[in-house]
Amino acid sequence: MPTMMKLCDHLDMEYVNKGSIIKIGERDRKCIFFLKNGSVKIMDSDNDIVKYVVKKGNIFGELSIYDKNGSSKEVALALEDVVICYIESDMMEDLMEQHKSLNNALLKIYGLRIRKLETRLQDLLYKDSKTRISEFIKAFIEEFGEIENDRVVAKNLLSHKDISNLTNTSRQTVNNVLSTMRKNHIIDYDSKFISYSKVLDK
After folding, report:
1. How far apart (Å, rounded) are the C-alpha atoms in residues 124 and 10?
2. pLDDT tens digits, residue range 136-173?
3. Tens-place pLDDT, residues 87-115
4. Fewer CB near the last or first residue (10 Å), C or N of the chain?
5. Are the C-beta atoms of 137 and 175 separated by less than 8 Å?
6. Cα 82 from Cα 75, distance rounded (Å)
């Protein structure tokens, strides 16, 4: 999102350590956050259930524009050391009115999140738990990873609990599926990285 990253250069910037909570809805003013470096997971503040994961170059907290009540129920947890930029939502709305490209970019991100939620709901109805987990893992590696030789390698940022939240399954099922995928050489992982072979997709 080039438009977002250019805007980030002109906003207040903050360094957040790995494991720290960014309280989206409990600041003095509602803000939109731009993730300049690192990654965060967005959770429901009532039950700590993971809703989605945000990577470098994307935004979070946009609910303060589209759903002001919903934004107060979200918190972000830094999955690694991160750099965030932020702007008050009222100021962001003014900028969106002035710059159509910014408005379109924000709407696109919000629309993609809604479509991902719809896909998760469809998967829950039509796919078994093992399929949901294996497809999620590969999609996560594709989105957050980089190609190294014949493998796609991503940082291992999510716990088994996180994956179970995001696939509507149990932690035990996640553990079993990951172990089976590694045993069958579909993926490989340790405490730092998770990867799969592009050769298997050919």
Report:
1. 42
2. 999 999 999 999 888 899 999 999 999 999 999 999 99
3. 887 777 777 777 777 767 776 776 677 77
4. C
5. no
6. 15
